[in-house]
Specification:
- This protein has nine helices and twelve strands.
- By secondary structure, it is an alpha/beta fold.
- It has a seven-stranded mixed β-sheet, sandwiched between helices. A five-stranded mixed β-sheet has the order 8-7-9-6-10, with helices on both faces.
- Helix 1 links the parallel strand 2 and strand 3.
């Protein structure tokens, strides 16, 4: 059952008098601590509220919902329980598999690009200098539905001729910060996480980046049946954002239009990762 971690209600503009505000439910899953997620998304939701109101000529309340895990967010979008979301690429693809009628609104850019890096890290004293050295070691993954934390990192390990049976043990820890902490604490020799988490939490003298791989920037996605004028208003509002103080917390530089084809490389990585875990095993979340 979905459990909501935190809900923010944006204040509707008074410019439209007594017109009833349009409620828009925005969802994001918890890839970091709830307080961090709140800090990241409050500025951008406040920033897009006014342009959306002007475009649809109606006051708007945007409600922020933080889901406790990836799966809860994916199911909520597929079932239409939220109006729009910001997901990782793999979660968008998984939601699309459950409901092909969801719609892309936009995709983030980082420094003007639609690509950024995922990392595989290891303790400096673990005897791991490159990816092939992970064989015979322990590994921390993120959420079982994470693009970087599972699917792409597993595809990279397979390219290095490493599958689940070649690891002493592995676990799905749910969040990127928990992966970093697992490697820092020594409970796991290596792990997969996003670049920003590594920069914030890891001492490069003690925790080394042993491998980088390319990921596609995150999509913003609308539920099935969200009215076209509202979809267009959200897209235009996102594309109008350029202030670093608004975008900075998300680590992006702006937004551009997105198509399903933009995420074909992620689909390929997800398909490849299917062979990482022997069929007799079922991934479990710790």
């Amino acid at each position: 059952m979905t459990r909501f971690i935190f809900i923010l209600c944006a204040i509707a503009s008074a410019a439209f008098g007594d017109t009833k505000p349009l409620r828009l439910d925005f969802g994001v899953y918890q890839s970091d601590r709830a307080t961090v997620m709140y800090r990241k998304f409050t500025p951008i939701l406040e920033a897009i509220q006014y342009p959306i109101e002007q475009l649809i000529q109606q006051p708007v309340d945007i409600h922020l919902t933080i889901f406790e895990d990836y799966e809860s967010g994916i199911k909520a979008l597929a079932k239409g329980e939220v109006d729009f979301v910001r997901f990782g690429p793999a979660s968008y693809i998984l939601a699309e598999q459950q409901n092909p009628k969801i719609q892309l609104l936009a995709m983030e850019q980082r420094k003007g690009l639609n690509r950024f890096n995922g990392l595989i890290i290891a303790r400096a004293d673990a005897g791991i200098k490159e990816l092939k050295d992970v064989k015979g070691k322990s590994f921390a993954f993120g959420d079982v539905n994470s693009t970087i934390g599972r699917f792409l990192s597993q595809a990279e390990l397979l390219d290095a001729s490493i599958n689940a049976e070649d690891l002493t043990h592995y676990a799905y820890l749910g969040r990127h910060d928990l992966v970093a902490n697992a490697v820092i604490s020594g409970s796991h020799d290596a792990g997969a996480l996003k670049e920003s988490t590594y920069s914030k939490l890891c001492d490069p003298k003690k925790i080394k980046v042993i491998h980088t791989f390319e990921n596609v920037t995150k999509p913003w996605v609308a539920r099935e049946g969200l009215e076209q004028p509202i979809q267009e208003a959200i897209t235009k509002a996102l594309r109008s954002l350029h202030k670093p103080e608004v975008l900075g917390e998300l680590g992006c530089s702006g937004f551009v239009d997105a198509t399903p084809e933009d995420y074909d490389t992620i689909r390929e990585g997800m398909k490849k990762s299917e062979t990482f875990i022997p069929k007799k095993e079922t991934p479990t979340q710790e």
